[in-house]
Amino acid sequence: MTREEAYARCPPDSYVEFYGGRWLIVPFAPVEQPQFFVCSPESVGVFSARRGFEIAGFDRQRAA
Predict the structure, then answer these.
(1) 25, 22, 27, 20: which is closest to 2 by C-alpha?
(2) DSSP annotation of 10
(3) pLDDT value of residue 35
(4) Interstrand relation of 22-27 and 14-19 (parallel, antiparallel or unpaired)
(5) What is the C-alpha radius of gyration for the chain, rounded to an integer number of angstroms?
(6) What pLDDT sits at residue 30?
(7) Strand positions, DSSP E, 1-64
(8) Which residue in 32, 34, 14, 33 sits closest to 24, CA to CA?
(9) How far apart are CA 22 and CA 24, in angstroms?
């Protein structure tokens, strides 16, 4: 398929890419963020508080 053919056949929910010496029509896919990377103000606050407790506990262990 030539570049012109790929662009002519490309639907609105796809894009054209040259890969491996060929023109490809690649459909857009919904992107989902892994749950590990999804954070909210609440989860950040919990993490920060937990981290603060870990640091405070570590400091107490070093002092003893």
Answers:
(1) 22
(2) -
(3) 72
(4) antiparallel
(5) 25
(6) 82
(7) 14-19, 22-27
(8) 14
(9) 6
| Alpha-carbon gap, residue 19 to 26, rounded angstroms | 11
Query: Which helix (H) or strand (E) covers residue 35, if one does?
Result: none
Q: How far apart are CA 26 and CA 15, in angstroms?
A: 5
Residue 28 tokens, joined:
């857009």
CA angle 27–29–31, rounded 5-degree value: 155
Distance, CA of 7 to CA of 1 (rounded, Å): 10
CB 16 within 8 A of CB 25: yes
Total number of residues shown for the chain = 64
pLDDT tens-place string over residues 4-60: 999 999 999 999 999 999 999 999 988 776 777 666 665 555 555 555 555 555 555
Q: Which amino acid is at 37?
A: F
